Amino acid sequence: MFYWVLKRIILGPLLHAFFRPWVKGEEHVPETGGAILASNHLSFSDSIFLPLVVKRRVTFLAKADYFTGTGIKGRLTAGFFRGVGQLPIDRSGGQASEAALRTGLKVLRRGELLGLYPEGTRSPDGRLYRGKTGVARLALEAKVPVLPVAMIDTDKVQPTGQVIPNIGRVGVVIGEPLDFSRYDGMQDDRFVLRSITDEIMYELMRLSEREYVDVYATTMKERIAAAKKAKVPSGPSLQPEKVPAEEATLVPAPEGADGAAGPAADGSDDARPPAAAAG
User: Is the peptide bond before 254 cis (omega within 30 degrees of 0)?
Assistant: First the structure.
């Protein structure tokens, strides 16, 4: 109930008035049934504007820290995230990864919409980074379509680290549903999961018109931080030649820190835009 009160009465009208969000492709969202909204991740506010423009309720997975705070601030924070459709997950890895997967599956099997960020964290520079395969595993386990979603200019409205957003217009582009039923029963095949994930990322690259980097965003953030510490200029030149294998994860929201779920990534060092998986 609080979700709809925030969306329609408290926050929604204000956000529409100040940011005038536009949406393209809303007709691709199914009226009923479970589906995954797989989005690029530019800003904290992605998890606000995407549900704002979709008529159905959208549920995201959020790190458990947002729900365990103490005092008035902690309770208000927890209430807000629950109110905007967040579910707490433990992102410590291991068994917690499977728990996060099960949480997402419950949402989808209830016939609801689940919002995910395949990159696993916010982009450090606005480019689109390599997807983690938890989204593919969820799609196969739940037997639901994946809708690629491109967030437009949310990083200009609320750059990383900025609490009070700038006034500006944002957009959401929703692509046609991707059907992966041809891979039914293959959710434990890591090569299939990588193929599906790359197909999703290709669509995100096309819809967002963002440069694609075949490196995990978390890896790039670590390299940027190390470069700053060493006082070495950062930028595209930091892209590594080899991509280290990382545990594939689901995408928690809204801060986008890595919540684990799914098998290990394949560690490909093919530094080019992902090719769509063969039909």
Answer: yes
> Alpha-carbon distance 162 to 166, whole Å?
9
Distance CA(181)–CA(88), nearest Å, equals 29
> pLDDT digit of tens for each residue in the chain (279 aa)?
788 988 999 999 999 999 999 999 999 999 999 999 999 999 989 989 999 999 999 998 877 676 777 788 777 777 777 777 687 776 555 666 677 788 899 999 999 999 999 998 899 999 999 999 999 999 999 999 999 999 999 999 999 889 899 999 999 999 999 999 999 999 999 999 999 999 999 999 999 999 999 999 999 999 999 998 887 555 555 554 444 444 444 444 444 333 333 333 333 333 344 444 333
Orientation angle between helical segments 134-142 and 95-109, nearest 10 degrees:
40
Pairing relation of β-strands 58-63 and 86-89?
Answer: parallel
pTM of the predicted protein model: 0.80
How would you classify the pairing of strands 247-250 and 259-264?
antiparallel
Find tokens 């995407």 and name the residue. 50
What is Dmax (Cα atoms) for the chain?
Answer: 53
Among residues 79, 40, 87, the alpha carbon closest in space to that of 59 is found at 87
